[in-house]
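Example record

The entry below shows one chain as it appears in the dataset: sequence first, then structure tokens.
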Amino acid sequence: MSSAFEKAGPGGWYHLCRRRSVPETPSRVAFNEPVVLWRMERVGGLLSHAVIGPRSNGAIIVWFVNGRPMGCRDFGDWSSAIRWSDQLQAQNWAVGWRLAFD
């Protein structure tokens, strides 16, 4: 009894990936949707997370506690937004929040 691979042959379901069909450089990935940067939890069932979203002129960060938005901040670029988010996470850590793993 022959395997499905042996049966495929020319014109079958199995085709090799030809080198010329694979791009030489990866395509640029663009994020157009909000992304969760981190999640934290605290004793007593409190949950917190921060989300970064794209803006035409930079980024916005919104942070939440138990699913309720606590604040937002606009930034002129993603680097400063992420740097600020890291500072917020460090501040939360200093007062007892810890990383949450889903």
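Notes for this example: The CA atoms of residues 56 and 62 lie 16 Å apart. The longest strand covers residues 46-55.
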